[in-house]
Amino acid sequence: MPALHTIPSHTRSRSRIPVTHPIRTVKEYDAAITEIETLLDHGSPKGSPEYDRLDLLSVLVEAYEAEHYPEPESPTPQAMVDFMLDQKGMTRADLAAIMGGRSRVSDFFAEKRRLSLAQIQKLRDLLSIPADLLIA
Length: 136
Prior knowledge:
Blueprint: H1 26-42, H2 49-68, H3 77-87, H4 96-99, H5 102-109, H6 117-127
Helix pairs in contact: 1-2
């Protein structure tokens, strides 16, 4: 169990949690966030026990957030084109003329071929997809 006497009494938080394991529950997460805020408000100097505790709690919170609140992945260009085709009531076959044939459409969706600049411009105009979302 961590020693409470290392942190001045005016910076101790009622929600102080013993750090004996990774954060496992929302209650532990909330308590860690509260303590981090208290330690940040105190402005603990680097190398102090308070600073080390802040550093440790930050790592634990970051690990908990990565597991429980992962950042959404950006959609692939293929997913964006598929989505917009569906929204406009079109099919992949409708892209053959602007992409240089059915085989190029097939290669693009199989992720065997990247889009050329000309294809990106045509898809942008046809499907209203921002060009930066079409660049892999």
